[in-house]
Amino acid sequence: MSLCSPASEVLSKVSLNGEWRLTSPQRPEISVPMTLPGDNVSALLAAGVIVNPYWGDNEKQVQWIAEVDWHLERTVWVDDAMLASQAIWLSMTRVDTFMTLYINQIEVLTCSNMFARHQVDIRPFLRAGENHLCAQFYRVDLKAKQRAERLAFPVPSAMGNNQLPHMNLVRKTQCHSGWDWGICLMVSGIYDAIELQVINQTWLKTLSTEQKWLDDGGVKVTLIAEVETTQPIQLYFSLAEQECQIEVQDGGSVQCSFVVSSPQLWWPNGYGEQPLYRAQVRFAEQRLERLIGLRQLQLNRQEDEIGSAMEFVVNGVPIFAKGANWIPLDAMPARETPARYRQRLQSAVDANMNMIRVWGGGQYESELFYLLCDELGLLVWQDMMFACSLYPSHEAFLREVEQEIAYQVPRLREHPSVALWCGDNEVIGAIGWYEESRANRVKYTVNYDRLNRHIEQHVLALDDTRAFWPSSPCNGELDFGDAWHDDNKGDMHFWDVWHSGKSFSAYQAINPRFCSEFGFQSWPSLAEVKAFAPAHDWNITSPTFETHQKNPRGNSIITEMFTRYFRFPSGFEQMLYLSQVQQAMAIKTASEHWRAISPICRGILYWQLNDNWPVSSWSSIEYSGRWKQLHYQAKRFFAPIHVVFSSHTGVLSLHLLNDSRRCSNVSGAVSWMNWQGEVLHSWPLTCQMNANSNQIVWQDRLNLAQSNEGFYYVEVQGEGETIINTWFATHELKKLPMKEACIEVKIDADEITLIANNPAFYVHLECDTSGRFSDSSFTLLPGKAVTIRFLGEDKEAMADSLRVYHLMQN
Ligand code: BMA
């Protein structure tokens, strides 16, 4: 590729993406192609230098990659015309991490923060003809160690998660060195497209927008362009169909306002549409544009008789936030493809989610992620990238953090989906986790606050339209209390069930205002296991399977919980299946209780949506994109209109929940059935629902709730959807005299028809090819045929590999 473009092409933007050469000074035998944007591990894998780190226990065989430096080189051809330009600006983001760029052996730029933007005019370093570019990446472990040696006092890092020390001193994705669901893969590279801009006289640098809401319901949208110019120019601004031309004499900030008198409002998923308006500024061939959404958003923190609210309000409407936590899409960033981002986020929306939390141990996500969230109506709870460690607050570190805020906040504030800035993940809690900080709490709390205040000030200086929340979890400003257990105020991370071994009913004993993390692990599906373990390792305690479990007690917790709730499964495949039943049951129990106490609780984000490699974890979507049972269940328990059994009022009641803005009607029946599926009692239901409501529509007057002789089943129709739910007297399903069931399965192209002879529970469909089913993990009543559609490409592969599981399989 050449920097020299043919005369007919626009000369203002050229690219340094594409093929570079990857070498390592310590491993002279390695010289392989590497595509940018991309990472070194993917390049080494593609060239056959390393084994697949995701297969078997290969992880340990690739650790040497972190113990050498890496060089990326290429040449570019530059012609006289290009050199005659005023400047050639190079702009790089997601440079991971300690990198020095040389052009023709001259040092041009050094980077030490993966989350910041690095810009330099490279024209002075270029010459006509061939130019040599070399990006040298230095070992992160050594740099981190050097930084640790220079600290005035120790700042402990998350060694329970990280396999390398002092990651907290480096502005790099914290989970790259491993997490309790993550492989340790110390990738390096450049993960965003590299931009080059050739500048002559005029440079359109940035475009930002502001919204001012008017009393008559209209909105004034101001477009602000930063321009450098040495000549008078005409700038063309536009917003949707409206246009305006402004004469600019010299550079600076140029503004132009438009009034949209009847704005089409942007709404979170489930509350309305997501119209986007195109805002644009142009000069000659230079053009900057943004797709903006018109919406108002507040965080309601009003004090009340319980404590204080934690509720997002969009366009004046209080929202019940429902969703999950997001971790990086892949441990190899080169695999962050648009199709995979879309599949994950579309799956979130398909499961009726309206909020995603970008977790602080990962990364400020790629532009595409936020564009998709805008398009799909997923609000984003945006953590700043600090997690589970303590962090320094000395000058040099604060300067690095400022750099990333200066880039990230202006970039992200343009997205209607971004709802909240949050200072970090669990860093307040971490003060209590380490010996040093426990012994000197005041010092470490002040240290925490220095950094956190600094982040807050810099974030709010760049965006005062959103709230800044100090940490997740947190009870409120300057409150360093125990947000893991205080359910009166703020957001909560509730880990008493998974990490502390309480029973599922512990979820029903708390009434969080907003639960931003709680989770329960499952093992991967058999289809997923096939992608990382040879058949002879299909055993929970095989070393391969254990390598793919990063929470040291994880497999024991899953197994021990089986003994509480279920009859023990008979083999490996049944164990995998049952672990997903158990996970779905845990998260459903919590989510349904917290919805049934609405409006006390106004947010449920479970841990975690996705996996960044094939692993046993808390995710509801596997690495391959396959939905676990939890994800199918989430589609039901997060639906805007839902029916939930709950006894928190003292008597088992059916709550009819409507989180939407529409009034609506539902009708159907609640039934009490025996284990043969015979209806012993039935209560018809016809109800009217107000918008944003929670009403009790039925109660267990016959007091059957204590009985093991049967189960409650509710089925109602509302807005063209069938809404179902099943209720058992106990979580200890092992005590219920369920009958063995046989399910007859008929496949006709993409339609699978199931018919059972006895009630079958947690009926789950799985196949080895990609694609999901229209429904799964449901109760199948006897004699009632249910037809499920396969939503995937390869129907034949589905039919060949289809497995139907359920709880009482013989
Ligand atoms: C949460 C997260 C992660 C972790 C998860 C499971 O608190 O913030 O640190 O992966 O717990 O332990």
Radius of gyration: 28 Å
Helix content: 10-25%
Largest sheet: 6 strands, antiparallel
Task: Describe the strand arrangement of the main beta sheet, using strand numbers.
Answer: 3-2-5-11-8-9
Shape: globular
Secondary-structure class: alpha+beta
Distance between the termini: 63 Å
Poorly predicted runs are 1-12
Protein name: beta-mannosidase
Domain Beta-mannosidase-like galactose-binding: 20-191
Organism: Vibrio cidicii
Catalytic activity: Hydrolysis of terminal, non-reducing beta-D-mannose residues in beta-D-mannosides
Short description:
The protein is 20% helix and 33% strand.
Describe the structure.
There is one protein chain. The chain has 810 residues and is an alpha+beta fold. The protein contains 16 helices and 47 strands. The strands form 13 sheets. Strands 3-2-5-11-8-9 form a six-stranded antiparallel β-sheet. The N and C termini lie far apart (63 Å). 45% of the residues are buried. Bound molecules: beta-D-mannopyranose. Residues 179-181, 361, 388, 425-426, 493, 517, 607 line the site of beta-D-mannopyranose (BMA).
